[in-house]
Amino acid sequence: MSLIEDCLRNNSFIAFDTEFPGCLRDTSKNAHDEQRYIDMSYSVDRTKLIQLGLTLFDNNGRVGGTWEINFSDFDETQDERNDNSIEFLKRNGLDLKKIREHGIGIEGFFSDLFWILKQTRNITWVTFHGSYDIAYLLKCFTGEALPESQSRFAKAVARILGSVYDLKAMAGRFEGFSNRLGLESLARELGLNRVGIAHHAGSDSELTARVFSKMANICHNVEETEGFVYGFSYRIMSERIKLREPQMDLALMIGLYRPPPPPSPFPMIMPMFGPHFPTLIDSDFHRLSMY
């Protein structure tokens, strides 16, 4: 934890990803947003996080470090799970038996991380298609069941996490991109290659960080996408948004598919790979209690 604390002194962006036991309910493609939230809450409240990836980076796109944290709480022989999702994780290289034996406890980790984050201001969280990722973070930080409605969830996330960006929602608001793309496809569109293995939280968070940095470098008006989460009807209204857009209704419904507003000045994030920026290799991943 001391490494993360040190890294946060110079890096105020956190890209994150989670691996979890899957969805317990099948949600219809035609379901309304509130039903999707109810089904997500049902799954998140009843399952346990398996893996968390954190990549810390600065406003110039320089990565300070990537951590892949494995949690010992999930027991595939006892706990609720989606068996198809479990088999998918295993096929992609997650050894759930070793994670169970050598991982660390969720409660202790998030208690320590929350204390560290309280000492740090202006954190920006970045995820991809992140409704479940955000929900697990909220659950783990608070130790409570998710709020009963999507609007209350959005307010709770704003209070606990603050500023949030979802790359899938961002991609749907800029010409030349599409929210139909997965993370890997979006990275390829931007000329970026993955480090590590797909569907491992550390690798996914690291790629998320670089995709965000590249998009912020080439797209105008990126700050206008803050708080929009793909599939959510309510924008996560951080204090930063409230200061920037004081007249905005706190319950403003997302307009993911309408044209973006006219450009306004925004400090662009510089390209990550400058002439003196070292290439990150697999050995730079940090794993806590991993094997």
UniProtKB/TrEMBL annotation:
Cofactors, names only: a divalent metal cation
Reaction catalyzed: Exonucleolytic cleavage of poly(A) to 5'-AMP
Keyword terms: Cytoplasm, Exonuclease, Hydrolase, Metal-binding, Nuclease, Nucleus, RNA-binding, Transcription, Transcription regulation
Gene3D superfamilies (alphabetical): Ribonuclease H-like superfamily/Ribonuclease H (3.30.420.10)
Transmembrane segments: none
Record flagged with keyword RNA-binding: yes
Subunit structure: Component of the CCR4-NOT complex, at least composed of CRR4 and CAF1 proteins.
Biological role: Ubiquitous transcription factor required for a diverse set of processes. It is a component of the CCR4 complex involved in the control of gene expression.
The protein's name in its UniProt record: poly(A)-specific ribonuclease
Source organism (scientific name): Capsella rubella
